[in-house]
């Protein structure tokens, strides 16, 4: 996977969703899997990446991460994943 500015959503073993930002999607996913990612994904093990989108700038990616985390309901997140 290429380097860039990514927003991603992980599906966890408990069927929850985790949203994050990274500049290296593959490396960040490995960190989550090995328990070196976020505190949340240490408690709720990720199963797979269900959504990712690349942005031209870090600022745009972080704005989208914030929007997904704080403005979208679970239903809206699932609709985003399916679109």
Question: Brief overview, please?
Answer:
The chain is of the alpha+beta class and 83 residues long. The protein has four helices and three strands; from the N terminus they run E-E-H-H-E-H-H.
Q: Strands, helices and their partners?
A:
Layout: E1 5-12, E2 17-22, H1 25-33, H2 39-43, E3 46-55, H3 58-71, H4 74-82
Antiparallel strand pairs: 1-2, 1-3
Order of helices and strands: EEHHEHH
At the third CATH level, what is the topology name? GIY-YIG endonuclease
Count of alpha and pi helical runs: 4
**Low confidence ranges:** none
Can you tell me about this structure?
This protein is of the alpha+beta class and 83 residues long. It has one domain: GIY-YIG endonuclease. The protein is 45% helix and 29% strand. The chain has helices at residues 25-33, 39-43, 58-71, 74-82, and strands at 5-12, 17-22, 46-55. The chain is globular and about 30 Å long.
Attribute tags:
GIY-YIG endonuclease; 83 residues; 45% helix; 4 helices; globular; alpha+beta
